[in-house]
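Quick one - first record:
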Amino acid sequence: MTSRRPRAHRIADIAVIAVTVSALAALAAPAEAATSGTTGAAAADVDHATWQRDCRAVMDQALPYLEQRIAAARPGERQAIVFDVDNTTLETDFGFSFPQPANKPVLDVAAYAQRHGVSLFFVTARPGIIAAPTEWNLAHDGYQVAGLSVRGLIDLFKDVAAYKTAQRVAIENRGYTIIANIGNSASDLSGGHAEKTFKLPDYDGQLS
């Protein structure tokens, strides 16, 4: 028979997880410089409202494409979208807490896709040690997680773009057609294995 931990200890555990997730996520940014992808404001002017406006502008382009592509699904086709996590699906730089808030423009697009039977996969440079809280955070915010790829010890020493491309190949090998790949860094989107890519702003690498 297992004993239940005191409430004070459980609260302390949650606080430790919050700090760990936020700190390790901040360290998970790709080592190489990302392309600017600046939409609207210059990097020096970035605030949450600007970022949300610029993310919405990109997702306003993605949604009509997805509506048409989902409607045109071939018989038996298993459609999927691949998302980055930090500053793509979650507000990492603007939500330094746990759970981190969803990036609302991206969540709106993801919600449409999952309502129409599209599987959502998440490929992140975050280390494996925070896989469980990351998946919980995504589900808590409303994402239906069909799969989450994090970096193991070997992957930590690999080129981030190559690692993420390999994860998309693995998803295709499971029988999925990746109809879109959404991220905020060049390393999220390079390497192919997606019918279309959508780049969110990173303001010359200012956002992880």
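second record:
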Amino acid sequence: MTYFSHSFKTISRSVPAAIATFAIAISWAPAAAAQAADTDRSDAAKWGLGAGVALAQKPYRDMDRDVIALPLISYENKWISASVATLDLKLFSNEAVSWRLRVHYAGDGYEADDSPFLAGMNERKGSVWIGGAVNWKTPAANFSAELLGDASGHSNGSRARLQVNRRFPSGSFGVTPRLAVEWVDRKFVDYYYGVEASEMHMGRGFYEGTATANAEAGLRVDYSPTHRYTVFLDLRATRFGSAIKDSPLVGSASRTAVSVGYLYRF
């Protein structure tokens, strides 16, 4: 009990701040909703509603873990795919490939009072990212890629992500391991992990970012007793690239996140 009371805190921030952290914690979790949708190739609209709880921690020094509970919402039709923090416009889709225009909100960044070590730092804001994405399904695995730019103008950065996953079904259960790599450019790293001259103090020196790549491994377990109901558990571990882990603001070279959720499909 002591570990939990000192290591975790329940979100008591504003709703936008909670959504920002939640977007990072379970940005991959809505894929659990897609498992049953894969068996339904019709163009009819599909809704999903549920609830999720995520346990996550940003990489900044002395920042507590957050426990966040927020609704899960998904919507899919022939032209649109939407879930928490992401909206896709399908430019071209068939059973194997889907090319998309993507709008995604990422809750990167911090406020100075999020951690004692960040006192005196200027706020780093989360951003809306816009770009292209492609999903490619093969008999061996599912592949996805995206290239996004910061449309909010906070970092003016770019990011790209490649991911591969495969679901192994067993009755009502499914296990989906995944591997991913995300590249972020110099502007992204400099904005979110850099230290400006006006922000320097003892133990927090000037730091300029460079482009880097983060590696991620994850595992999702889902249980669907019927087509409409899904319960999932998702685990994720991220290893930061050298330009991020070398920042004086970062306390660990890696981070982990856990989320659980329930989704009902209409």
